[in-house]
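[Q] Does anyone have a clean C-alpha cell version of this?
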Amino acid sequence: MTPPADTPGPYRFDDLHALFVNCTLKRSPEVSNTQGLIDRSRALMEAHGVVTELVRAVDLDIATGVWPDMTEHGWESDHWPVLYSQVMAADILVLCGPIWLGDNSSVMKQVIERLYSCSSLLNDRGQYAYYGRVGGCLITGNEDGVKHCAMNVLYSLQHLGYTVPPQADAGWIGEAGPGPSYLDAGSGGPQNDFTNRNTSFMTWNLMHLAALLKRSGGIPAHGNQRSAWDAGCRADFPNPEHR
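[A] Here you go.
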C-alpha cells in the first residue's frame, strides 16, 4: 500500500496502545492456537509503532457478575478492576478466542459481561467511557462458527461504545470435526492466505481508525452525552429549559 503523497515515510502509530485479550480456555503456559493468530496481528502493530499488551483472561481470577468490582457484592476476589484499567489505557481492544459448540468460549462471554458491567461509566465529557476507542476480534477453531462468533463480539463492542472499523474480524477454522488446530503441524493455518489477508486488513483498519479518532479528539461530544441527557439537555428534542 502506497502512503499518501503528503506522508513522509511509512505509516507510524507510535501514539497508539493496543490490548489483546486471549479468551482461550487453556491456562498459561499451555499452547493456545488463538495465541498463534494473535501473534500475527500483534507483530504487525508493533512493527508500525503501536505499544501492545496481551492478557490471557483465564489466568486471572475474574468474578462473575455485572458490577465493576464484584468484591463489593460478596465475592472474595476479583481481578476485573485491574484488567479494566488496562482496557481503558488502550486505544484498540482485540477480543480473541476459540469456537466451542459453534459459539464463543465461556471466557469470552465472561469478559464481554464484565466490559458491560462498566458500560454505564462516563468519560470526562459525559459520554460513555468506551467512546473514542476501536474494537476488533480474532477467532480460531476446527468447527464452523467464525462469523457467528465475530458477529456476537463486534455487536457487543459497538453496543458498549466502541467504534468498529470495516472488516474488523479475522479467523481460521480447519476441517470440521476432530481435525488439526491452527498451530498443529500440517494444519495449513499459518500459511492460509485468506486468514492472513483478513488478519492484515483487520489490523490496519484498527490502527487507521484508532489514529483518526485519537488525533481528532475522539467522537464529538454532541447529542451523545449521558450526563447532558440526564440533566435534561436533550439534543433535537423540544427543550425550553436548555437552549
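[Q] Thanks! Anything notable?
[A] The chain is about 35% helix and 15% strand.
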